[in-house]
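Can't paste images in this forum, so I'm doing it all in text. The chain is below; anyone willing to post the predicted structure tokens underneath?
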Amino acid sequence: MAGFVECLDSETAEEIINPMEELEPEKKRGQIYHETRINILNILITSLECSPPNLALYLLGYELKKPVSTTNLQDAGVLGCPRTCLHAILNILEKGSKTRYGPTAVQESPHLAELCYQVHKISLLLVSLDKGNKLSVHKSLIFVSHLSRFFQKSFVLLFYSALSEAQI
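Text version of the structure:
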């Protein structure tokens, strides 16, 4: 799990606009990290389409030996909880969310941001479908809302940035 999280947390990942131009080694490495992040998110999305237990649920921090709905999501380090791909995805989406321009991932790498939102949305949906347990969705939403009203800020910022672009 640590390797996946480390790749998602990579600060050197960079989306290259014109892939045909000759790049210096540092830029090539940044592009490789970016493509790796995209591929990890695609693996998670594909795996989430399979019935539980699956790789994505493990990497997102859900318990596999019990019903998914019984997982109690925690911040990394709380009660021995390791840093998971879910923590890394939420971190990607939260970076820059306190600025007036919104999350930096949406501005710098919209494809990456879209895949992050998809992974999180599908994982919440799967947990809610696990025997129709409304309590598990509630637990997951409490975890996410604990992260400084994450979705509320994201949607407000995306709304206002779309509104300002439409006025320009």
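The longest helix spans residues 25-48. The mean pLDDT is 76.
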